[in-house]
Amino acid sequence: MEIVPLSQISPDQVIIWSWGFITINATILYTWLVMAILVVGSWFVTRNLSSEINVSRWQHFLEVIVSIIRGEINEMTKKGADAFIPLVGTLFLFICLSNILVIVPGFVAPTSSMTTTAALATCVFIAVPFYGITRTGVFHYIKEYFQPNFIFFPFHVMGELSRTLALTVRLFGNIMSHEKVVGILLAVTPFLFPVVMQVLGLLIGIIQAYIFAILSMVYIASALSTEDETHLEVKKESAGT
Amino acid sequence: MHIDWFVFLAQIFNFLLLMYLLKRFLYGRILKAMDDREAKIAARFSEARQLKEKATEEADLYEKRNRELAEQKENMLNEATLAADARRRELMEKVRVEVEQVKARWQEMIAREQDAFLYDLRQRAAQQLYATARKALADLADAGLEERIIDEFIRRIKELDEEKALQMRQAIRDSGNRVTVQSAFGIPESRQSQIEEILKSRITNGFTIRYLREPDIVSGIEVRVNGHKIAWSLNEYLETLVESLTETLQREAHAA
To answer: Which end of chain B is more exposed for a tag (fewer CB within 10 A), N or C?
Structure first.
């Protein structure tokens, strides 16, 4: 007897359409679904935006979400939060919606696929040096890898890689394991208990989205803080002379 | 775990696409709307602050003007009160003067009436006294009152002192030696010659004499020459009577 079907191990295994190298599986399908909901919902609400005092409920809802994201980013970067909102906000909204939609029967969260979490973590992995170099310049950014001396360069690189891996596995592990736990419990103790676990799963999903987004921002902010420190040192030197 | 590299790349692409679309349809618009609203609210606050400042200024100005108006009103009121007082005093003075004038006219009129009354009373009293005395003399003696008056007149000429005689003589000369004897009654010719003789013997003899009847001389006879005279009449008695009567009347008037 198969307790957990293969399709529940990972949505990657559910191939919908394939042609040579190109494969459309459930992960991509559900990703498109989440994307469609986010994009169409945003377009629908923001097509008639008002900057007056009285605005629609949905606009209020979106403004609350965006302002919370902006506030969180502001707390870490202190300035220029709007530049990071697309990346961090999209990470949070995509992961959060994917995890919430789990309560819909038949929906499998794309984040329960390690391919997806790896792709998201890779985006963060690329974004950190991108923002770092954009703000501080190549030399300053690379110089940080050799601080306090060149021996630490491998450790810095390992740190970058390991935290990307940590991002990948943390999200994937939490979401996938939860789904598996709920599936197993459903087979063992049906009725109420799995419902409680589903509620807990929603909470975990939202928390994981928050953690992923916040950690991403922390990594980016750490790359930016070197810029601030460098600039501060330059200012101090010029003031001293 | 197995990682499908096509799916991996596809998910990266999907994420970037989602990021772009959300930036275009969500963040950009929402942030713009929020910023616009914030700017509008800030502008409204600024406008409200300006309006409040302006209102405060207006209120201050209004209060100042009110104060000035109140002061002006008070000044005008004071001026009007002073003017009214002055006018009242002026009118009171005018009225007082008019009253004084009316009172003076009235008193003058009263005095005139009193004089007329006293004159009339004196006339009547003198006539009455004359009639009474005459009747009394007639009853008491055979000689008429006129005779007794003439006798008294002649006695007075006789008893004239030298100084008075000298003054009379001088006066007769100054008047062109004309002497007028006035009496309230007719003097018989025998008595006229007596008078003429006594005048000639006592004063001078170089004059012409004429006799006139003058009813105003109450029961008397007099020689009047250029401001000097020798006379006897009831007038002096009557004047005493009139004086005492006048005093009595004035006392009565004051008491009233």
So the answer is: C
Given an 8 Å threshold on Cβ–Cβ distance, is B18 in contact with A35? Answer: yes
Cβ separation B37–A87 shorter than 8 A: no
Task: List all residues 6 or more positions away from A93 whose beta carbon is below 8 Å from its beta carbon.
Answer: A38, A65, B22
Listing DSSP states for B152-199 in one string gives HHHHHHHT--HHHHHHHHHHHHHTTSEEEEEESS---HHHHHHHHHHH
- Residues in chain A with CB shorter than 8 Å from the CB of B18 are 35, 38-39, 90, 94
Question: DSSP 3-state assignment of B91?
Answer: helix
- Output the pLDDT for position B136: 65
Report strand pairing: A15-19 vs A22-25: antiparallel
d(CA B69, CA B71): 5
DSSP strands (E only) in chain A = 15-19, 22-25
Residue A195 has pLDDT above 60, yes or no: yes
Neighbours of A185 (CB within 10 A): 16
Specify the pTM: 0.60
